[in-house]
Fold this sequence. Notes:
2 domains; 8-stranded mixed beta sheet; 35% helix
Amino acid sequence: MKDVLAELDRYYDTVPRRHARVEELGPFTLFAGDPDGWTFCARPRLSGGGDDAAAGAASYDVASVRSVLDRMSELGLPQVVEWVHELTPELLDAVRADGTLEVEEIPLMVLAGGSTPPAPPPDVTVRVLGPSDLDAIAEARAVAALAFAAPGTEAGEAGTSERDAALEPVPDALVEVLREGGVGWVALEHDVHGVVACGRHLPVGATTEVVGVATLPAFRRRGLAAHVTTALVGHALAGGVDTVFLTASSAAVARLYARLGFEHVGTAYAAERA
Ligand SMILES: CC(C)(COP(=O)(O)OP(=O)(O)OC[C@H]1O[C@@H](n2cnc3c(N)ncnc32)[C@H](O)[C@@H]1OP(=O)(O)O)[C@@H](O)C(=O)NCCC(=O)NCCS
């Protein structure tokens, strides 16, 4: 299992390097990216990468945690440390001993087997979005914003009129990432109502993370997220990816992914100083 966790760790180390300046600080790598773009955090240094002697000499104790957080504060960044628990188990004790951090436990799930849900309802089309699908991308972004504002898996009020009221122009940078293949985007489009569910995956070499799976609250509990996830997996595998992983935000969400062939392989932690 450590091999796949090391692969996920390498993925997490690679993604922010595209957008962030990198500092090596004791046993940590600090990604100093855009505080609004989620491209900042400190992570344990990858073993085998960079100045291993320096990384090995320092240990994950309260002093090293404080030192990297203080540097993030100095840079005006939110103070966040993220790691794969099984690879650096001692970091959890150090973070807890610091006493100023809020710790979130995040189950890591990797696609192990395949399981195909039944065909989507006849009035819903699965679409892979490209850089010219600006209207559908704008709807998908509004669907995601409304869905994550109503966490959990229960159905809710927000529907297509709320989605349409939340539409915003698609940023050029996003279109560029789509053009470069840095994101695979799937939307479920209803014949009458437009985009009602969506999700993305972010390939890096042969590894990809499924993120942002979202169903408009008024359209939940009809199997739509299962179709989004299956379509994302199909798109990733067709593009040459061989490891598809995701994090589950709750036990109910983990159950949904487990039915589609994802298995719990480990635990990530995110610790943030308020
Ligand atoms: C999580 C989320 C994407 C699920 O969307 P969804 O389209 O409702 O998901 P599904 O319909 O595939 O599955 C949800 C439940 O409905 C059930 N269901 C599926 N088809 C059904 C049907 N035809 N009739 C009744 N129930 C059905 C599923 O079995 C599942 O039940 P369970 O909770 O008991 O396991 C959605 O709730 C959401 O957007 N949540 C907020 C954002 C979020 O947390 N995203 C996940 C990030 S990790």
